[in-house]
Amino acid sequence: MQVDLSKFDNSRYKPGRSALAQAAWFFIGLPLLRCPIIPSSLFRVKLLRAFGASIGQGVVVKPGVRVKYPWHLQIGNNSWLGEDCWIDNLAPVRIGNNVCVSQGAYLCTGSHDWSDPSFGLITKPITLQDGAWVGARAIICPGVELEQNGIAALGSVVTRSIPAGEIHMGNPANHVRQREA
Hints:
Elements: H1 19-34, H2 41-50, E1 54-55, E2 60-61, E3 66-67, E4 73-75, E5 80-81, E6 86-88, E7 93-95, E8 100-101, E9 106-108, E10 110-112, E11 121-123, E12 126-128, E13 133-134, E14 139-140, E15 145-146, E16 151-152, E17 157-158, E18 166-170, E19 173-178
Parallel strand pairs: 1-4, 2-5, 3-6, 4-7, 5-8, 6-9, 7-12, 8-13, 9-14, 12-15, 13-16, 14-17, 16-18
Antiparallel strand pairs: 10-11, 18-19
């Protein structure tokens, strides 16, 4: 197969907001969200809500967090987004209650079809159920769900869903044990 990226056509993908709303986010909202000199988590939460995110009470958003499209983001109560985590949400990302997304974690909802010579875009949602924990520098791939109290350990690459209460680690992430209550 010969890859020909000149034939790439992303016109089927619709980000869910107008070009003006996207520009406002990328040039105003995102720089403010990431700004390290603004210490307020409450400011970041209000900013994400202003751009369409659904965010519960008691949510902590640390400096350096990056969100592709806030209107595709839903976060429950008392959840944390650690420094420099990246929510690359071309598709919906749903984060439940009491979820920790640690420093530098990457949640990726989009990829490309490597069997397609024009490298077509594929998007799938990510869901982190109540009590889930994404460890520092872990990568969550498109279509993955961490079920209730599931853990993706530090640096793991999660390519398939993690059942409730299981701890997965490694590249690719594999089950290592059950989470203790």
